[in-house]
Write a structure and sequence with these properties.
About 40% of the residues lie in helices and about 15% in strands. It is built from 13 helices and ten strands. α2 packs parallel to α3 and α8 crosses α13. The longest helix has 24 residues. The structure holds flavin mononucleotide (FMN). The site of flavin mononucleotide has 25 residues, from β8.
Amino acid sequence: MTDRVRAYLAGATALPAIVAPMFLVSSPALVLATCAEGLIGSFPAHATRSREDFEAWLVEIEAGLKREAETAAGKVAPYAVNLVTHETNARMAGDLELCIRYRVPIVLTSKSAPRDVVARVHDYGGVVLHDIATRRHAEKALASGVDGLILVSQGAGGHTGSISPFGLMNEIRAIYDGPIVLAGGIMTGRDILAAETMGADFAYLGTRFIATPESIASQAYKAALIETDASGLFYSAAVDGAPVNWLAKSLIAAGADLDVLRVTPPGKVLSSAEVGKRWVDVWSAGHGVGLVRGIEPAREICRQLKAEYAAARQAMAARLAG
Ligand SMILES: Cc1cc2nc3c(=O)[nH]c(=O)nc-3n(C[C@H](O)[C@H](O)[C@H](O)COP(=O)(O)O)c2cc1C
């Protein structure tokens, strides 16, 4: 199984990279642009307003990929949908039915270990990759039969892990030799090669794709990313309940007091009146944010990543030979 999934992912893509699902950022246009360049594109089902909207996105993506496949010179990669497999997600059952009906090629599960979801996705031949941030999460996910793990390390955008990518990768590789996707601050083609060198099969890139015309992030969010570097991020679990790297300026502009946030005890979540409307007025980015220096079309970024990756491989081969 492991080898089949690994071979499928490698064979279906032009670069070992997944453009990660991002709430209020991902869009059908972003998925189509990245898949057209041979990178796996994705979006969270919960980013759509309703089940009907989710289905409309699936229809648009399926039709767009079909059109691309008829004309593309290179590989058109499959797409992925993020499902929050947690009992608090009231839409889970209906969204899963739609994934099954449309035979979504790759399902990215997050939160709870998804035994039932895995069985249903496997029934139609789909692949399940599960988000983890610790070894305990990984063990639970593997026991539920997932096809691969997404290691969300320190420095990721969105809900982040707190363990260094080296530490997390080494811990998980010690217990698992199947497909691993590494996330956290990955921004360049050279970073993707570095992730492979560390033992990953694929890299997961979110922040690199927020400031694109295809993303549905607001213009203000995109502009804020362009002027922020990693030192402008503020790590807190008190805004959303889970740890997130936030743009400090967006928190301040929304009226948050960073000193209050710093001393908020674990488990306490401040109200939106105190910290602004999370994800809408206060924005997240990964530690790679300093490389975002303009709004660039997603296809251009993909091409740049592929060129950087090829150059990094050549440079590394020369270095090893020398
Ligand atoms: C604004 C934003 C929203 C996100 N929303 C989701 C989400 O809805 N579901 C999910 O699985 N991951 C979400 N993520 C996390 C990404 O899928 C991915 O793990 C992360 O962006 C990787 O780190 P990077 O941003 O440093 O590349 C989000 C990330 C960002 C920046």
